[in-house]
Design goal:
Elements (H helix, E strand, L loop, with lengths): L3 H37 L9 E3 L4 H7 L2 E7 L4 H18 L6 E6 L4 H6 L7 E6 L2 E4 L6 H12 L4 E3 L2 H11 L5 E5 L7 H6 L5 E5 L4 H6 L7 E6 L4 E5 L5 H10 L5 E3 L15 E6 L5 H16 L4 E6 L4 H4 L12 E5 L4 E5 L10 H13 L3 E5 L5 H5 L1 H30 L22
Parallel strand pairs: 1-3, 2-3, 6-8, 7-8, 11-13, 12-13
Antiparallel strand pairs: 2-4, 4-5, 7-9, 9-10, 12-14, 14-15, 15-16
Helix pairs in contact: 3-5, 10-12
Family: Belongs to the protein disulfide isomerase family.
GO molecular function, one term: protein disulfide isomerase activity
Keywords: Disulfide bond, Membrane, Redox-active center, Signal, Transmembrane, Transmembrane helix
């Protein structure tokens, strides 16, 4: 039987246990609270590409405001070619006023991370802006990659005070993105558009400029918004009205050149395109007669800005051209109107372009389309998004077929077990499903 003294002693011990538990819980709370800080401290902006793993990927992404991540596989040849370019770009980007960190992770080994960000082709690049990922489709050579990434940390609207500032801005911007230069305009007039289209174009307002600049950019009054597409040597001037609707329409129309050449890289630009695409299919886009036709198409595009005009050569991009029912025996050039996905339209008796008076034939095609004298067709093969992701298409099909087969097998086994309830269920030999080794870059 316990004495009063024993009971008091037990109470004291219990209090100590409770206090000790409280202290331990508090210490655990403090410990786990500072873990992210301790982990983050392991990363430094030192101009080197950071090698990440499954365990520290999320911490790295949350540590830095701007991170370019290379999701690679050790066996991938293109990944090996890209690696030295990233090594060369990393120290330059680390020295920016707002540094950009380059990191990489073996997404074939660390599948949790790879699956989370839907990585199925290698290398895949993504830019993480304050932890939010966006696909990177820009150049992959070190010098132009640096110029491209500077866009993500640049001001939404650059303020230019002189002719020299304008010249430096255009040179630094490079040729990959279009530019919109406002002359005699207040920054607030385009600030919302600059934020909205920050990933697709440069924006600036010139507060000080000379008559020489006006002559150079071919505008004769202010306010004026000048769009430049250096890659395609194109310039367009907008004099207003400067309300939101008309201003944004001008910006949207000039994010693309008048007539876009379709290839595996430019095809990616069509992801966000809302207009129907007037697509001209030629045999060889490098031939002189094709180049002359492109000039005619540009003139038509200038008068029909509600459509995006584009062209593609069968010899340059056969896989894409053949989805429109074109073969080596087809008579080209030919025009279609494409919705950017699975459907396209031919114009009855007007889709073929001869060698004589091509300007009239292009006009006749457009008139026929607008009047509805069309035939709707489906592209042969995958949809646009599937085609664009053709590197992963076959893998995805294999995975889906495999999953369906496994589900059918499980269902069959389950049904058999129900039919023969007295037979004890056999346990299959366990085994790990082997990952296919024949991956595509």
């Amino acid at each position: 039987m316990k004495t009063e003294r024993d009971m008091k002693k037990q109470i004291v011990i219990s209090d100590k246990v409770v206090n000790m538990s409280t202290i331990l819980c508090f210490n655990f709370f403090i410990f786990f609270s500072i873990i992210p800080t301790l982990v983050s401290a392991n990363f430094a902006i030192d101009g080197k590409v950071i090698e990440l793993e499954d365990s520290n990927f999320d911490s790295a992404i949350s540590t830095f405001d701007f991170v370019l991540v290379d999701f690679y596989a050790p066996w991938c040849g293109h990944c090996k070619s890209l690696s030295p370019e990233l090594d060369a770009a990393a120290p330059v980007l680390a020295q920016l006023k707002k540094p950009i960190v380059i990191a990489k992770i073996d997404a074939d080994k660390y599948r949790r991370v790879g699956d989370k960000y839907e990585i199925d082709g290698f290398p895949t690049l993504k830019v993480f802006l304050h932890g939010v990922p966006t696909d990177y489709y820009g150049p992959r050579k070190a010098d132009v990659l640096v110029r491209f990434l500077k866009k993500f940390v640049a001001p939404d609207v650059a303020s230019l005070e002189s002719d020299g500032d304008i010249s430096n801005f255009v040179e630094e911007a490079g040729t990959f993105f279009p530019m919109f230069l406002g002359f005699g305009m207040n920054e607030s007039m385009i600030s919302e558009l600059a934020i909205k289209y920050k990933k697709r174009a440069w924006f600036a307002v010139a507060k000080g400029f000379s008559d020489t600049v006006m002559d150079l950019y071919d505008f004769d009054k202010v306010p004026a918004l000048v769009s430049l597409h250096p890659t395609y040597d194109e310039r367009n001037i907008f004099y207003g009205p400067f309300d939101d609707q008309f201003l944004e329409e001008f910006v949207k129309q000039n994010l693309m050149p008048l007539c876009l050449p379709i290839n595996p890289e430019t095809l990616k630009l069509l992801r966000d395109e809302e207009r129907k695409i007037v697509l001209t299919l030629v045999d060889d886009s490098q031939e002189e007669k094709s180049k002359q036709l492109v000039k005619i198409l540009k003139a038509a595009a200038s008068a029909n800005r509600d459509y995006l005009f584009a062209y593609v050569g069968l010899q340059q991009f056969p896989d894409f051209v053949e989805t429109f029912g074109i073969s080596k025996s087809s008579e080209l050039p030919k025009m279609v109107v494409w919705d950017g996905n699975e459907e396209y339209f031919t114009v009855i008796d007007a889709d073929r372009i001869g060698e004589d008076d091509q300007g009239s034939e292009v006009s006749r095609f457009l008139e026929g389309y607008k009047e509805g004298r069309t035939v709707s067709k489906k592209i042969n093969g995958p949809s646009f998004m599937q085609f664009l992701n053709s590197m992963i298409g076959f893998k995805l099909i294999i995975i889906v077929v495999f999953v369906v087969a496994v589900m059918m097998l499980i269902q069959t086994v389950g049904n058999n077990e129900e039919d023969v309830p007295r037979r004890p269920p056999s346990r299959p030999d366990s085994g790990e499903v082997e990952r296919p080794a024949d991956k595509e870059d």
